[in-house]
Specification:
The chain has 396 residues and is of the alpha+beta class. It has 7 helices and 24 strands. The longest helix is centred in the middle third of the chain and has 23 residues.
Length: 396
């Protein structure tokens, strides 16, 4: 007689483990994708108006007004009634004869005035009279601010010396980004739980390509590297490198007084650019901001969706508002940092828009190679309306 094959018999109730060796395990085909919200700056630039550049090296110009104030570099004694005095300043080019200037009024009295008119400029010396001949010039301390109010010329003048500005020209280069992946023909043909493998790799590489842009837009440092003859490697000047004017250093924790003073400084009347700013902030800086409670800073911590992502925290003060958004790239690379931006004065400059290149492998190869290529840069205009918040102990 043929031998019966062994059969395992289970007593009721049937054990739920007996089928695990031969059932088709349920595996979700929905692939969880990481880093969905990491590229905050890149997303914002993608939604702002961009301008294509025609060359890998491009320039742009900013035309600024002549500054209205300088510093007195030497003490000036109080002058006699109607007498001319000499004021030496750091920036004589900011002034022209016929300008009415003003210095601090701490030493004003019934016989002296702090408002003067420039009669002549000799090198760095402003030769000034009191605006009214019935007064003498008040004492001026070294380091005093000399402020240019307006012009006031005599009737029948021959006109005063011309004063004009030259636009400041900035230079930027485009950064080349490349990201590729490979898979064998067999892997491509296999059925996978998460769908076609080529599709999965393409999506993962796309996200990596985007995040590379994010870190470059923040941290890249300008260089044209010619070590390989005839094949230069270029890095753009990133957002952080371009901010020079407004920088707030702080200690172990950002304090509300420091932030308030910095906010006032960023909204200097010479560079108002409107009452709003955005702050791309690390998680650590956001935590400090949310700890603050000061009557002059109204803090709203309600998360809501904005055009470019969740608005984590909004600070309002003196009719102005700053919106803080978390930038994971800063949380990872520069904890405690924040970058104050004005979207109106920044944009992306693409030379080669992002291209997905397929089948770049050799013809006889038994594998597949695809990838992404981009060439672009970030352009920042009027960096003085931007700002940088950073801990003092960060090593850059």
């Amino acid at each position: 007689m043929p031998t019966d094959k062994p059969v395992t018999i289970y007593d009721a109730p049937v054990s739920s483990t007996r089928t695990t060796e031969y059932i088709n395990i349920d595996f979700s085909s929905d692939l969880t994708l990481d880093y969905e919200s990491e590229a905050v700056l890149t997303t914002l630039l993608g939604r702002l108006a961009s301008q294509k550049t025609e060359t890998h090296l491009f320039r742009f110009a900013i035309d600024r007004q002549v500054p209205r104030e300088s510093i007195a570099t030497a003490e000036v004694a109080a002058g006699a009634t109607g007498a001319r005095v000499d004021i030496t300043v750091e920036d004589p080019e900011y002034f022209v004869e016929g300008d009415v200037i003003e210095v601090p009024d701490d030493y004003n009295d019934d016989d002296h005035t702090n408002q003067l008119v420039i009669d002549e400029i000799d090198g760095s010396v402003l030769k000034c009279y009191p605006y009214d001949a019935d007064y003498g010039v008040a004492f001026i301390a070294e380091g005093s601010v000399v402020f240019n109010l307006h012009s006031s010329m005599i009737e029948g003048s021959d006109g005063r010396s011309p004063q004009q500005t030259i636009p400041t020209v900035y230079e930027q280069v485009v950064n080349i980004f490349e990201d590729y992946f490979q898979l064998t023909n067999i892997t491509e043909a296999d059925r996978h739980y998460t769908g076609p493998e080529r599709t999965r790799l393409r999506e993962g590489k796309r996200k990596k390509h985007v995040i590379d842009h994010e870190y470059a837009y923040f941290f890249s440092r300008f260089v044209v590297d010619n070590r390989v003859s005839g094949k230069p490697r270029r890095q753009m000047s990133g957002l952080i490198e371009q901010i020079k004017t407004n920088i707030l250093f702080y200690g172990g924790r950002l304090e509300d007084d420091d932030l308030f003073d910095f906010m006032v400084n960023v909204h200097n009347p010479a560079y108002t650019a409107g009452p709003k700013r955005m702050v791309l902030a690390s998680g650590q800086l956001l935590a400090d901001v949310n700890r603050m409670a000061k009557s002059s800073l109204r803090i709203n911590s309600i998360t809501r969706e904005t055009t470019w992502g969740p608005n984590i925290t909004e600070i309002q003060f003196a009719g102005k508002s700053w919106q803080f958004l978390e930038a994971p790239a800063l949380s990872r690379r520069a904890p405690g940092w924040g970058v104050v931006i004005h979207p109106r004065y920044m944009r992306k400059r693409p030379l080669i828009p992002t291209v997905y290149k397929m089948n770049v492998h050799p013809n006889k190869a038994n594998y597949i190679e695809d990838g992404y290529v981009s060439a672009n840069a970030i352009e920042v205009r009027m960096e003085e309306v931007f700002g940088l918040i950073r801990p003092g102990d960060f090593v850059s």
